Known about the structure:
The complex is a heterodimer. Chain A is an alpha+beta fold. Chain A has helices at residues 6-13, 25-39, 113-119, 124-127, 132-135, 250-255, and strands at residues 44-54, 60-70, 75-82, 90-94, 97-102, 107-111, 136-146, 149-158, 168-174, 180-186, 192-206, 211-223, 230-239. Chain A has a 13-stranded antiparallel sheet. In chain A, β7 and β8 form a beta hairpin. In chain B, the strands form two sheets. In chain B, strands 1, 2, 3, 4, 5, 6, 7, 8, 10 and 11 form a ten-stranded mixed sheet that branches. In chain B, α23 packs antiparallel against α25 (666-683). By secondary structure, chain B is an alpha+beta fold.
Amino acid sequence: MKLRYWFLGLAFSNLSTPVALAIADQEVRELVKLVDTRQRNVGDYASVVFIDQKTKDGATKAFEARVYRRDADEKLMILFTKPKAEAGKGYLRLEKNLFLYEPALGKWERQTERASIAGTNSRRDDFDQSRLADEYDAAFVADENLGKFKVYHLKLNAKPGIDVASPIVELWIDQNEKNVMKRQEFALSGKLLRTSYYPSWQKMFSKSKGAEVYMPKEIRVFDEVDKGNATTVALREVKLEPLDANMFTKAWLESQSR
Amino acid sequence: MTSDLAQFRLIGAVALRNLWLDRLRTFIIGGLIAAGAFLAVIGLSLLLDVQASMRASITQSIAGDLQIYAAKAKDKLALFGGGGFMGRADIGSLPDFSPYKDAVLSHPNVAAFVPMGLDMAVLSRGNELDDAIDALRVALKGGDQGIITGRIEQIRFQLEQVKLELAARRLLSADQAELEQQEKDLARALAPDFLAPGTPLTEEQLQFLETKIAPLSGEKLPTYLQYIGTDIAIYRANFPKFRVIEGTVLEPGQRGIMLSRKVREELLKNGVAKLFDKLHKRIVKRGARIAGDEENQRFAVDLSKQYQQILSYLDRANAEDLSAKLSARGISDQSPDLLQRLSRQISAFLTVDDDNFLERYQWFYEHIAPKIKLYEVYPGQTITVRNYTRSGYIKTLPLKVYGIYNFDGLEDSDLAGVLNIMDLVSFRELYGQMTEASRKELEAMRAQVGLKEVQAEDAEAALFGEAGTASGAAVETTMGQALNGLDASQVVLVKPTLADSFDPAEVQSGLALNAAIRLKDPSQQARTEAELGADLEKKGFKLNIVDWQQASGIVGQFVNIVGGTLVFALVVIFLVAFVIINNSIIVGTLNRTREIGTMRAIGAQRSFIVALFLAETGITGMFGAFGGAALAVVAVVAASRKGIPAANDVVTFIFSGPRLYPVVHWQVVTLVPLLITLFATLASVYAARHAAKVQPADATQEKE
């Protein structure tokens, strides 16, 4: 499942999700573009991420990690804080290099970009910014209800020649707040692969961007292929203030687990 | 009675006389039967030997006599060369094996119960430049200026090699802009003031080397390590083929791993040494020359191109020393540039043929191997193994390599040599098993985050309905303020908690994926398997119980394949012999019409004729079959003196060693000739009945 290591993606993508309006095609396109824009942050980012995974056979695992990101330099730092067995482990991503720190050894291991993506079973779009408008043609499907909320249902088909992880995406967008509440991804055959819910969002002002950005606070992902597998992601203590440049160094991460 | 005996004697005497009179026919039929008996005795003897060898290979290395695993397994247990995706079979698990252990050990024929788990991990690696920069970091922390200078010199020398590689790449690269940027980065690293001995290096400089320069030296492919986790004490006591050949043994209560010699030789050895070894084995052990042998030639060509695998480990001093030594032994080059000179010298040295190979092989190990890192892992070092746990996340675990082991007699076997052995506690962690403490910790984490559990079926109602958690309409606005003031500069001070030992009692119970069962009397395997199966079922345990052949996967089936092939071959031989014997007797009958007619004319009954013909074949068969069997015994005894060499690594495994030493199986030597005699006699029934139909009048007719 894509979100096995979504914390890697979190830091790159701001949890890429879309928002839309309804009615005319042109308005739908504008809305998808707006979704991309308002989720992108330009600058630094910090958060505490909690990831909870459960599989259909009853296996369960959870992590808590601090995620620090600097988009301008393509830098990412992930420091595991819980559980104890994982505490102190970390990933430092510098450009196309991903370094893994093993505190019990006090050693770093450099992995290639390819390894970091394939090795974590995450997908390219996990690491990218939201670029739905560039990659998909959006179409209005219907006005619907999602629980007590009125939503727009959109269908996005990948543009010809564009390499995307899911060729078909469907979105359900809150008609009032324009936040994505539900997202489904399909294979080219039309087979449903996974369903994600975004029950809460937060709006923050990014000084570096000079505008507001929208971030989900909670994501629930259900695997539709391996039914019963589910992942919950919670983002806490999100901060968009500038981070110290020294944070994106091996020395800084090592200093956290001495 | 007396009359019957007299007739029996008469038939025997006449049959012997006839056989003697028609010596050529007797010799041909007897020879055919002898050849069949020879092949049958040899074939069946070897089959029994191979079965015994395979059994020894498998039962004494990893499988035991029987194996148990969960009944709800999706895949079949396959200890060798099987399983699901990437060799990871889903055989379920035994969450706590102790009740099964107690039940199994209560059977009087069970000697031991060995808990196990089979899985696969990745050992990813950086390149030589990564190692060198890492060593520089360590040296900088240590502060010893001499060591720092040495490290810097080594890196500078490697950077010069990278420069040459980039220049070569310029001719091939499609992305010239990227290449130019790489050359600029390299030029910065090679600038006199960047890596100058005595000049302090900043973190930014080190990071520049690690992120911009190290990747230029290429990437190694990750290594996949198949391993079993087990209770090492019980394992060692019950698997006599396990033998430590380097380092120390993993003791009970220690976290760690024993690497297979084969794995280290094949996957973790310097590429040049590996190619030298392969050629050496084929030339010395198999007698295959380089000239005329396609595979040897391919290895030789590969070898001549691998000079970089030596160069990249050298610092300037070692490089100069090696260049001088190569010049002294007649491989010289006039280039003033050390790198260019040594590259050509090493390349020339690695260009081997039948005349120079053995001498260069020895020279390599004597003069070059000590200067390079021959193996990526040595006993005493710690490696980081990475694995996908069953719940789908990646787990990394540092494990000390205690030693290198072999399965005795299976040193060269690809099949037996792929497994590495680790302690069961580390196995459980890589598998993703949660302890009670970690389960409680997880619950505390969940409670702290405060997310309620939601099922897929009612997610929309739970999240967006009246009772839902959704604030979809009400977006929380924080205006750039951290909710709880996360301070990025705050030191988290997380501490690794991994101990390098554990209480040996931890492996007396708990999770295992499967378990090996060793029997006191392996000849009672089938009966014990049935009894254990019934007993476990009676106790309500839902388990698969399989014998060593089934448990070992495709390799175990090899015995059946070999046996089936042999039996098929023997059946074909017998059918051909049957047709030949039958035909020759019929032809012989036609030639003996006058003789048979005469016997009939003087009062011989038809039954006498039939008995006579059967007796002739029976006597021929008896002499032929036992003669062939006797020859087979001589051949087996001769072969057992030197042993039959294994032609390749697969056969090594089948032979349970580099040679098979066949033994005489007397039951085969006696039973096979008797069966063949019977078979040959039966084969002549038709011909005998045909002969009995000859009329006395036929004896008086002249041949046309």
